[in-house]
């Protein structure tokens, strides 16, 4: 259970880092660049802790699935980037995939 907490923290760091990356303007703005760097370091550190007990494929599916959904929400709320129907369908399929892995896969219990 502790590993899933580490994974959640890693995802939060990744969301913050990716959001700051958008505002860094190709690393030309100092504060967003620093936030991006610290965010990705924190994300990979906590992901490495999660990988002690969570299989890498499962961890990455959760990481990327949740990250994509939340980054899309950040894009909508802060950058006015509205996804079209195809993007929304794709997001739903990604979430469904993560749910299937976590609910039905025996891999996720190892």
Automatic annotation (TrEMBL):
The chain crosses the membrane at residues 30-51, 58-79, 85-104. GO terms for molecular function: amino-acid betaine transmembrane transporter activity; antiporter activity; choline transmembrane transporter activity. It comes from the Bacteria. Keywords: Cell membrane, Membrane, Transmembrane, Transmembrane helix, Transport. GO terms for biological process: glycine betaine transport; xenobiotic detoxification by transmembrane export across the plasma membrane. It is found in: Cell membrane. Its main location: membrane. SUPFAM superfamilies: Multidrug resistance efflux transporter EmrE. GO terms for cellular component: plasma membrane. It is a multi-pass membrane protein. InterPro entries: EmrE-like (IPR037185), Small_drug/metabolite_transptr (IPR000390), Small_multidrug_res (IPR045324). Belongs to the drug/metabolite transporter (DMT) superfamily. Small multidrug resistance (SMR) (TC 2.A.7.1) family. This is Multidrug efflux SMR transporter. It comes from Flavobacterium rhamnosiphilum.
């Amino acid at each position: 259970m502790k590993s899933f907490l580490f994974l959640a923290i890693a995802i939060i760091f990744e969301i913050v880092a990716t959001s700051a990356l958008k505002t860094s303007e190709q690393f030309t703005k100092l504060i967003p660049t620093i936030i991006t760097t610290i965010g990705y370091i924190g994300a990979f550190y906590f992901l490495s802790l999660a990988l002690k007990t969570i299989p890498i494929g499962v961890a990455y599916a959760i990481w990327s699935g949740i990250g994509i959904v939340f980054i899309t929400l950040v894009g909508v709320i802060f950058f006015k980037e509205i996804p079209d129907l195809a993007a929304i369908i794709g997001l739903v399929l990604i979430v469904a995939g993560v749910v299937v892995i976590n609910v039905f896969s025996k891999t996720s219990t190892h």
